[in-house]
Specification:
With 695 residues, the chain is mainly α. A two-stranded antiparallel ribbon has the order 1-2. Helix 3 packs parallel to helix 15 and helix 17 crosses helix 25.
């Protein structure tokens, strides 16, 4: 190993060991031992991630790119490429340490650790405590492997690993039909997207002869390829297919809302810090390729913007508290994909970080509400809970303000950065900015709707539930407090450029300029020569930046005011509005019937084909086989009673001869290499002698 970061492999390995120990021996341990192993290994990974950061930043920005190779994994070939060249498929187990991977590791380990701690309270009564924490640790191992991988193939291993863990955790309560179906749905829908990823990865190898990032991306920007080279566009679109699966974008987003069927901490882990961020990470990791394929980048931007708006509209009509948050995740992921699609790669990662804080907070807060109400999730049976759950109420309020983009909260800074870059980037468009701004208003509306329905108004739960409402224990509320603080102050790592130009304020904020995430991530973003893509500066004038900021804040305030009027001042109005616009409300309430459309166009035809093949197998194939078997038995019976011309003797003689020959050959094959070499030498000498005598 040529770098001082030899220990980085322990970051994913430790949770993997925790998963192994609890998975194999967990049933013999007490619950305290189980969660000590699970939380302890995750905490150790988190501490190592911070050690990595401290050591990493001591290097100058231009030198912040290291690889740690542990051993050679695959070495296959040579393989003849379409270009006529030959190449070997060589993939080592090698981890990449650069600003992007460091940020991902910090977010995954820190938020993952808090979710582990929260789980010790939420899952305490579950009989499968060991299995749960084993799966949770395995999820961490897979995601950290993905984030640190130095090649497409190793990344794909982590990619499939998080897919497997999502299936195991979403369907954790397998005795519930809805949970089992949701787990299968997540697994199967992601297989569709993963096929695109796999084809894209194969195309990368056929074109570049390698799957290592450090081999592929320098060649992409070397000048050998022009803008929108067909092979680069094809690779970008195939990888995007994988992104639409993992990061729940149109058309493969349908699995994520159903993922709420798993335990609530699982929802927080999937939605905030692990699986769904993998697609955004992949696009940013491949930023060099996408910069050289702006046509593919444009498709990325459109999918992100449309998904953000589409999911936000669905969130306005849901009544299940976790389902509202699930659609908000789809929408916020759309923001991240939009940012990547307009070339604002650092803005996408900035929103990924802040979203991890406030979305984990919101899901864990929802879990605290559900825990207090004995697993009630329908907001129509809540109300007035701020008096019973003061800590949950205060912390969730911070999360709601952050995701709604209220000024000075973390979501305000990252969302505004995305909208700004969408407007000024050469890859962006004013229409995409408009879609993003409308989405901001809808986000504020449905999140404050959730807030008012849950914590304000009359108490709509039954009397028995009301008498037993209680605040969650400290091992659940402490993670809420930590995440609430981060949801408030997390935006300081990405302050708008305009803030540093303001009088007095800019002077006060100047020390923070060196710690901005955009500057930290800059070495991970490829510098494509301007002659190739014609990129102009993404900097906006101070006036334009403040104007766009005012527009997004205004949209958020409108969303808040509408929610305040409908669900606090005039709570009888929503039912009247729904009745007056019944067709539209029903359409949105039923999620535009997308699941039903997929069921009619994809699921049922496949089931019909499967049933047809089953019928053919039973009635045709089995019939032919049974008929052949009957004919064989009949002939055998006939040959036993009528032995014409000694048929049995001939058959038995042939069988005995084959047996004797086989026995001789068996004795000749001893498995000893020395005897084989001796036999080969004897044969060679015999052939040489024969040649000399005959010729």
């Amino acid at each position: 190993m040529t770098t001082p970061f030899w220990y980085v492999g322990l970051i994913p390995l430790l949770p993997g060991l925790g998963a192994l120990v609890n998975g194999v021996f967990g049933r013999r341990f007490s619950k305290r031992v189980i969660h000590t192993i699970a939380c302890g290994t995750t905490l150790a990974s988190c501490l190592l991630a911070w050690v990595l950061l401290v050591q990493f930043v001591q290097y100058p920005p231009e030198a912040r790119h290291f690889t740690v190779t542990y051993y050679d994994w695959l070495d296959i070939g040579p393989v003849r490429l379409p270009t006529g060249e030959s190449a070997r498929l060589q993939v080592p187990v090698e981890l990449l340490i650069d600003p992007l991977s460091v940020v991902m590791v910090l977010v995954v380990t820190f938020v993952g650790f808090l979710i582990h701690v929260y789980s010790t309270g939420y899952m305490w009564e579950d009989p499968d405590y060991a299995r749960y924490f084993s799966y949770l640790n395995l999820f961490m191992f897979a995601m950290l492997t993905l984030a640190l991988s130095s090649s497409f193939l190793l990344l794909f291993v982590g990619w499939e690993g998080v897919g497997l863990c999502s299936y195991l955790l979403i369907g954790f309560w397998a005795d519930r039909t809805s949970a089992a179906n949701a787990g299968k749905k997540a697994f199967l829908v992601n297989r569709i997207g993963d096929l695109g990823f796999l084809l894209g990865m194969m195309l990368v190898f056929l074109e570049f002869g390698s799957l290592r990032f450090d081999d592929v991306f320098p060649r992409v920007v070397s000048g050998a390829y022009g803008l929108n080279d067909p092979i680069l566009v094809a690779i970008g679109l195939l990888l995007l297919a994988g992104v639409t699966g993992k990061s729940a974008q149109i058309p493969l987003y349908v699995w994520l809302p159903d993922a709420m069927e798993g335990p609530t901490p699982v929802s927080a882990l999937i939605h905030a810090a692990t699986m769904v961020t993998a697609g955004v990470y992949l696009i940013v990791r491949c930023n060099a390729l996408y910069q050289m394929a702006p046509d593919a980048l444009g498709v990325v931007a459109v999918i992100g913007a449309v998904t953000a708006l589409f999911a936000a509209t669905i969130g306005t009509a849901q009544t299940d508290i976790k389902r509202v948050l699930a659609y908000s995740t789809v929408s916020q992921l759309g923001y991240m994909v939009l940012a990547a699609g307009v070339g604002a790669f650092t803005a996408a990662i900035f929103h990924l970080v802040t979203h991890a804080f406030f979305k984990a907070l919101l899901f864990l807060g929802a879990g605290s509400v559900i825990h207090a109400l004995h697993h009630e999730q329908d907001m129509r049976r809540m109300g007035g809970l701020r008096r019973y759950l003061p800590t949950t109420f205060k912390t969730m309020t911070m999360g709601v303000l952050a995701i709604a983009g209220m000024p000075l909260f973390s979501g305000f800074f990252s969302k505004d950065e995305i909208l700004l870059q969408t407007f000024v980037s050469p890859y962006g468009h004013s229409l995409l900015w408009a879609l993003g701004t409308v989405t901001a208003g809808l986000t504020a509306f449905y999140m404050f709707r959730l807030w008012f329905l849950t914590f304000f108004g009359p108490e709509r739960m039954d009397e028995h539930t009301r008498r037993h409402i209680h605040e969650s224990p400290p091992n659940m509320t402490i993670p809420l407090r930590v995440l609430a603080v981060l949801s408030v102050v997390g935006g300081v790592i990405g302050l708008p450029t305009a803030f540093f130009h303001l009088p007095v304020v800019g002077t006060l904020l100047h020390p923070l300029e060196a710690f901005q995430i955009h500057r930290f991530l800059e070495p991970s973003i490829a510098r494509v020569p301007a002659a190739l893509h014609g990129t102009v500066s993404h900097e906006a004038g101070l006036g334009l930046e403040l104007l766009l900021m005012l527009a997004s804040v205004g949209a958020g305030l409108v969303g808040f005011l509408v929610a305040y009027f409908l669900y606090y001042r005039r709570p009888e109005l929503p039912d009247r509005v729904a009745a007056a616009s019944e067709p539209l409300y029903t359409l949105v309430r039923n999620k535009y019937y997308v699941d039903e459309i997929y069921d009619a166009l994809v699921v049922r035809p496949l089931l019909g084909l499967a049933n047809l093949l089953t019928w053919l197998d039973v009635h045709v194939v089995d019939g032919l086989v049974n008929g052949a078997a009957w004919l064989t038995r009949t002939l055998a019976d006939l040959s036993g009673r009528v032995d014409f011309y000694g048929v049995d003797g001939v058959v038995n003689g042939v069988a005995e001869g084959v047996r004797q020959v086989g026995g001789a050959l068996r004795r000749a094959h001893t498995g000893l290499a020395q005897q084989y070499v001796f036999g080969a030498v004897v044969l060679a000498l015999f052939l040489l002698l024969f040649y000399m005598l005959v010729f």
